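Worked example 2:
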Amino acid sequence: MPAKKPKLLIAAAAVAAGSAAVYFYFRGLSQQISNPQESAKVVPDEATMAAFISPNPQALAQLQQLGTPGAQKLVGQGLKAFQEQSLAGTQIDFDRDLKPWLGGVMVALLPPDAAPKTDPPKLLVVVSVKNKISAWNFANKLKSQQGATSQETEYKGVKISEIAEPTGKRYSVALLNDQLVMAPLRKPVELAIDTFKGEPSLATQQSTTKFFSESAGVKNPIATIYIANYPAALQQLKANFPDDLQSLLTVMQQFKQVKSMVAGIGADSSGLRVKTIAQLYPKLLPQNSQAPSKLLSRFPGETIALVGGKGLDKIWLQATAEAKNSPEVDRGIQQVRDSFKRLDLDADRDVFGWMNGEFALGAIGSDRGILSQLGMGAAMLFETSDRPAAEATLKKLDAIAKSNPTVSVATRQVQGKQVTEWQIPQQGTLFGHGWLNENSVFVAFGGPLIDVITTAPPQPLSSSPSFQAIATSLPPANQGYFYIDMEKTMSWANRYLLAVQPNLVSPPVAELLNSLRGVSVATASTEPTTAQLEMLFALKYNN
């Protein structure tokens, strides 16, 4: 696709962006909810991926109760500005020309005609029409733009309007009952007509029907993304991805074990929720037990952020295997190995090799002792079945610390547990480690946290009101989890970070962050070839 966006595609992008604006902060929509299955009926079954966006009134009602007024205003202004910028020069006004007839929007990628799999995919946009007269007026406005020409032809009894700009670019549009189909090329529109006339469609695929109808299980779905063939979609996108999105493509390429996937975005009483279900190629996902976390209860209510999971050794082995086929991953793996090598540690043997149980890493708020200047410290907990290997690694680190004349290494008893500490004269304990039980080791950065992590907290994080509100609505995670309390994070940032660098976070970004209670993520696998991810952006209530 040329770098300069053609007007019709800009209009199509504005349609999707307009839908987003509607379900977030615009009012006055009809209560009709477009059905993705209806749009899928005109999309050929060979589509490698499809995304559906719906102006869902239930989602809109939920979101109007959430988020601070300032954040709502900022998002509304940003989306409005995007619409105006996208439609600049097209003589098209979103509220007047698009909003009255706009229903759900489906964007599909079809395989290229040519044999090379890296050729750009064919784009097809399907827009549900709520008001045919308004849609007809919009089509006429496209045709009548200054310098544009149009030609009407028929294909299998359906009228196709081909619109040409003065630059020579052409676009095709056709109306199929209540679905407006459009594409920068005529061929995708013809394929949509073939499908409308009875050729197999996405809607005829049983798996697709399930994915779109359930939207990965989210309530009040706003958007659903379905990728039928993940490797094929990546190959096609690679040839046509703009330079400023190459980093996103690089991230997507790291998930080569994914065969197909569906993602749903919805709104409920807690906030915005994202659910993803991926079908994987066999034997590529480490299988962990369904047992609940044993380490979560060790973290106190003052915990600001937490990430954890099981089997770091398996994750590391999977990453090193992936590095053989990915230069980006290989560079990252090499950087990790080099970092540990400077400490005379072998990453494979001395570090990740013994981390075969559950692990958890947390940032904990504290203004005591050596942490008074920073306001927080960190603690890491690891379960292992190879205690001798873990102890050998910790002894190597202690030896390095002893070689520094400004650091003293000593042991003490805390709650009946022997703890090794690195102390700096006149400042306090910088680092400490010890064993919580026979197979659970901890490492703490900041002396005050040694006492915190070795003692069962009277008010653990798992029972705190903030954790209950942000994380407990997610399913149990047996692959990994992430949690951040944004209210605690912003309170810490205002006191310790922004007080020194007030311009580090812009006022609009701070407004958006302050509208969040927190973010939580859980990943799980109940079958060897199925992975699930759920993410919640917990929003404050708009009082």
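The longest helix spans residues 7-25. The first strand starts at residue 49 and ends at 53.
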